[in-house]
Amino acid sequence: MSAPEASVQVSFKNRAKTALADRTLKIAIDRTTGTAEAKRAVAVAAFPEFQDARARGRAIKDHVIAHLDHYLEQFERNATASGAKVHWASDDAEARAIITRICLDAKAKLVTRSKSMLGEEIGLPHALADAGIERVETDLAEHIIQLAGEAPSHIVWPAMHRTREQVAELFKIAHHPPPAADDPATMVQSARRELRAKFLGADIGISGSNFLVADTGATCTVTNEGNAELTTTPPRIHIVTAGIEKIVPTTAHALSLLRLLVRSATGGELTQYTTFHCGPKRPGDADGPEEMHIVLVDNGRTRMLANEFREMLRCIRCGACMNHCVVYRQIGGHAYGGTYPGPMGSVLTPVLNGLAGSRDLPNACTMNGRCAEVCPVEIPIPTLLRAWRIRSWRERLEPGSLRAGIGIWAVLARRPGLYRLASRIGVRAIRLFGKGGWIARLPLAGGWTAHRDLPRPTGRTFMDQYRAQQADKGDRP
Amino acid sequence: MTARDRILSAIRAALPQERPAPDAIAAEAKALLADPDTSRPRLVAEGLVDAFILKAEAIGTTIDRVGGMEAVPDAVRRYLSGYGLSLSLAVEPTPALTALDWTGLDTGTTLAPDQPAALGKALWGIAESGSMIVHSGADTPILLSFLPLHHIVVLQESDILSHLEDYAAQLAERPHPRNAILITGPSGTTDIEGSYVRGAHGPGFLHVILVASTD
């Protein structure tokens, strides 16, 4: 059973509980996020200008968002002039229809794909399968989860939930010949051998885009493996899928943002391959596709532009927020149930799937602020998660018991006298459940006491103690 | 109403009605790049060549310095022999390379499936990051940079630029090629447990023959 299917049937709490019980998953998460956190710290320390670069990156994204229509039209003009065909899709269904139509018109049998989270967001893998087209994922991690029949659990390391031993099991069945050993180097060689023929035999190559450059009409991919260029060069047709927020004014702006993106994602300075793709093969070119299609996808982005989530459009998909999130590092990506996991996913999933089915995500946050501290474009993620909590309350999505409890608290909180009386009764009543200095079990507080003991109150409220202390001071000469 | 109209009108509805003219937007965009030194890494050495070498070697690129273009075939032979490879490789059909004397080496312009090495020429290097730049064209097939296990690149010292912005300026001065590629080290992956392995799909070895400036 794949993760997205599971998410429809099972609640977030149950998915999180299952994830927490999975010791292998915890090992896998710790290995990758631990390395990512350490490498980012080294890369940032080696770049004293990082904070200034961050402010500039944020300003570039805000500028583009403030003139989004202008830049999209400029991009469309220049991409068209380069010989590419630009398509527009309001939502995921329109995007799937456009891409499937291009594949069917070309009578494509084999499609190679270079990792793109937007492709996952619009459900491209399923759409291609439904159209009877063989899809080969070429990013190593995407190759692993395609073999496992899973969705990505991280936006940079989609297979980070799998240990090397689990990857070896998959390759042993799928690769011919199977890899000779289960160390990462041998398995990477095996995937290289297995996928080489697919690259060269594909009818269509599909990639995402990290940037759309308005003044040239180029799209930009970044990879460490070199799979994007091997995906987009040999086939007859190259299709790009891109969110409309990916636009930047010029190549120089894109390169400026790249410094932030790569350091924040992997701790590298640049990915091994950064490629600007501008139109199809030119007359006389030694290689390249004959057709290039660019599908610009809205899918909720113009809604975010109009509401309190506009700042989320700055996101450049580095994944630093999840690598530094205490919740993500306990439960991994699949428990979130959406395309995008972690802090940024908890902001985006309610936009994409509706708040009613995903209101647990903005609540599954400790508000420790780590995500906002490391975000390379200064997105105030905790503030945006709080905005979802406020919406959820306004739309009355919480269960009745919770609303009633908060309602009672609100009545007390607005009446200081009554509040103090209730606290006085409360701390004395709670003391009755304690043994020694600690309380192991307390009615209505099972969520707390299931995991740790509660300190036994002293028997007097803070206000009582404060008053007594102030009175003492008054007595002194 | 087309999807294009729907998207553009939704954007316009969300943004202020009074909008600056295109010239003003362009000026604002340009201002965002002003004073780049405040927000980009400093070079790791005084000179461009030294900085380039330090950065390139740090990411696993190997470097062989030669005195002139005529020394390139010997450097290639040295490299292939060092790895115990046969003296056979694909050479990008760019005049600067095809004009050289390849006697004693088996060279072609296409890469056979079992051929481990290809030679190309970079247009520029970047001292900031140890990157090299390749543009697609009639005599620069992109696949030669990605298919072989050993990618050998000729770079002239005089073509080393300081920062990424300097390359952006060069690119802006000419027609944009189909592909403009920054190559920064050999192909690698960290997709299995975050552990770094070279040669994922592209070349596992990136070797630069750095040619001294003649003037």
TrEMBL record, chain A:
Keyword Transport in record: yes
Domain LUD per the UniProt entry, residue ranges: 72-297
Signal sequence bounds: none
Gene Ontology process terms (BP): lactate metabolic process
Pfam families found in the cross-reference section: Fer4_8, LUD_dom, LutB_C
Residues in 4Fe-4S ferredoxin-type domain copies: 311-379
Record GO terms (molecular function): 4 iron, 4 sulfur cluster binding
Domain Lactate utilization protein B C-terminal: 408-469
Keywords, ordered alphabetically: 4Fe-4S, Electron transport, Iron, Iron-sulfur, Metal-binding, Repeat, Transport
Source species, domain of life: Bacteria
The protein, known as: Lactate utilization protein
From TrEMBL, chain B:
Domain LUD: from-to ranges: 118-211
Database matches in Pfam families: LUD_dom (PF02589)
Superkingdom of the organism of origin: Bacteria
Residues spanning the signal sequence: none
PANTHER family from the UniProt entry: LACTATE UTILIZATION PROTEIN C
Protein name: Lactate utilization protein
Lineage per the UniProt record: Bacteria, Pseudomonadati, Pseudomonadota, Alphaproteobacteria, Rhodobacterales
